[in-house]
Specification:
It contains seven helices and no strands. By secondary structure, it is mainly alpha-helical.
């Protein structure tokens, strides 16, 4: 009877040790969701930036008709205001001190889109 209890205790301890090691597993986002073919060269406002803002519903919430938070992003001059003050990139990148966008989401837009916006901004945020 005593041997059976010892076997049960050993089995329980081995199970707990196994759970401890499994709890230390850490997923790396870049390894789980690699960015494939993210071209950041020669970003264009009219082709790339407008597409990113449209596909991520930025313009549907921030337009001349119904600008959420009084922020408009449906023209180049509107977008440029938020590029120049850092709010566009800070918001989509979920940087500390900026209101994270998309609003109500804990996840950012995809990393490739963020990298493309950043490249366009670093290249001077031209109206091209």
């Amino acid at each position: 009877m005593m041997e059976l209890q010892i076997i049960k205790v050993k089995t329980l301890l081995l199970g707990l040790i196994g759970l401890l090691f499994m709890g230390c597993y850490n997923d790396v986002e870049e390894e789980l969701y690699p960015t494939v073919n993210c071209n950041t060269a020669g970003m264009s406002y009219s082709t790339d930036v407008v597409t990113i803002l449209t596909n991520n519903s930025c313009i549907s919430c921030h337009n001349n008709t119904n600008p959420q938070g009084s922020i408009k992003l449906d023209t180049y001059s509107d977008v440029k205001i938020y590029v120049d003050n850092g709010r566009l990139f800070g918001s989509v990148n979920h940087d500390v001190g900026f209101k994270s966008m998309p609003q109500g989401s804990t996840t950012k837009i995809n990393q490739c889109s963020i990298d493309q916006l950043q490249a366009w901004i670093k290249d001077g945020a031209l109206n091209n």
